[in-house]
Amino acid sequence: MNADTVLIYLDRARYYALDAVSTISQCLCKPDATLKINGRTYKVEKLLGEGGFSFVYLIQDTSSLRHYALKKILISSSSGMGGGGGEEALKEVMKEVEAYRRFKHPNIIKILDVAVVQSDEDGGGGKVVYLFLPYYQRGNLQDVISHQSITNQRMSEKEMLRLFKGTCLAVRAMHKYRLPNIPQSSGADSENPFSNPSTASYPPKSKLDVPTLERGESSNALEPLINDGQVVFDGDEELVDEQNERTTRPDKGKGRAKDDDDLGELIPYAHRDIKPGNIIISDDGQPILMDFGSAKKARIHIDTRQEALLEQDVAAEHSTLPYRAPELFDVKTGSWLDEKCDVWSLGCTLFALAYDYSPFEDPSQGGGSIAMAVGSGRYKHPTNSEWSKGFKLLIDSMLILDPAQRPDIDKVIELTDGVIKTIR
Predict the structure, then answer these.
(1) What pTM does this model have?
(2) Would you write out the chain's pLDDT as a tens digit for each of its 424 residues?
(3) What's the family (predicted)?
(4) Which of 6, 48, 107, 243 has the smallest number of Cβ neighbours within 10 A?
């Protein structure tokens, strides 16, 4: 274990302790812990989950009595090697906020509100970011898997494929993302906020375009949670870069179909952490892809060994081990990384839904290195598998070591539809 890893663990342990102390003190001081943000009061009911420097709580609006999932992200005042702090950490969190806003699809979770609060925990210099998300009572696919393994009651192949296809549609919205096509202004360049790259900055001069409150402070008016289309945060560095490219290269895209041009430049994104725990089930039974903290532009060329090691470190921090694509374990200099890493994760997810474990953590193998298992690409379906040949071939088509040989998301959806048609 190197020094950087030790620092990360120490910093993370410190913040787990801080949050535990804060939560316990709130509960000891009041019968029900409450939180006041953006002019509204919420009752904190229970902890739903945790990971890294974030915690997810079930909260209830005391005015409307509606429930929400509140993601609390802790950011320390310093930006040491241990991570979790400073302006860079805040910048990363705001990228997650922007990702929620960027991808609009029925199978992608919507962010309802966001606030940045000055923390009195880290000596008063840190911040806490609150993300308000819909709360779905039915849990996620990992909960389904856990229930299946305990009760031995399995969902049907058709139901698995229905949930899988909905997830694929969400992934396609990311892989096929196009910029909104902003028409060139006939006026001076000064009218175009993206025309001069030197004026584009992160954060913008007004800092963060989100509510920023001191602890205990609240706005005078009772503000609703944001409406669809309202800008939560417009300081996204990636979005500025995309718009710079689009507006400063008017010839780009010539020769494309008109409909494609109306949609703007194709900028594929990869989720980078698709797994059963990040696919929640809505109250009407639809799969909803969530947790965009790892999402990034998909297509990256690795020019140097330093860049390769950096991408490996990012993947190790943000992409869950049993569902991580092989090209993210050993990044090669001169290679391309792209959205096909999500296709691999989808294959692992469907396998786990069918058999209760990912293909590279087979309990019959008695442990061993997941990284080595993934690198070999060797796995097997249980001999007593009840699923159709087409279903198993669908999984196999996604778990191909060479990303160039893996199907793209459109092909995965086509193959899924083909298997669904064979089910009576």
Answers:
(1) 0.76
(2) 554 444 444 444 444 444 444 443 344 334 468 888 878 899 999 998 887 678 999 999 999 999 999 999 988 876 543 445 677 888 888 988 999 999 999 999 999 999 988 876 655 568 889 999 999 999 999 999 999 999 988 999 999 999 999 999 999 999 999 988 766 554 444 444 333 433 333 333 334 444 444 333 343 333 445 444 333 333 344 554 554 544 444 444 443 444 555 668 899 999 999 999 999 999 999 999 999 989 999 999 999 999 999 999 999 989 999 999 999 999 999 999 999 999 999 999 999 999 999 999 876 665 568 889 899 899 999 998 899 999 999 999 999 999 999 999 999 999 999 999 998 7
(3) Belongs to the protein kinase superfamily.
(4) 6
Query: Does the annotation place 71 within a ligand binding site?
Result: yes
Amino acid, res. 240: V
Domain spans of the chain, in order of start: 3-134, 141-178+266-422
Distances from the Cα of 271 to the Cα of 42, 108, 253, 292, angstroms: 31, 11, 25, 7
User: How many C-beta atoms surround the C-beta of residue 187 within 10 A?
Assistant: 8
Taking the CA atoms of 374, 380, 385 and 387 in sequence, report the sign of the dihedral they define. Answer: positive
Q: Which CATH number fits domain 3-134: 3.90.180.10, 3.40.1280.10, 3.30.200.20, 3.50.50.60?
A: 3.30.200.20
CATH number 3.40.50.410 given to 141-178+266-422: no
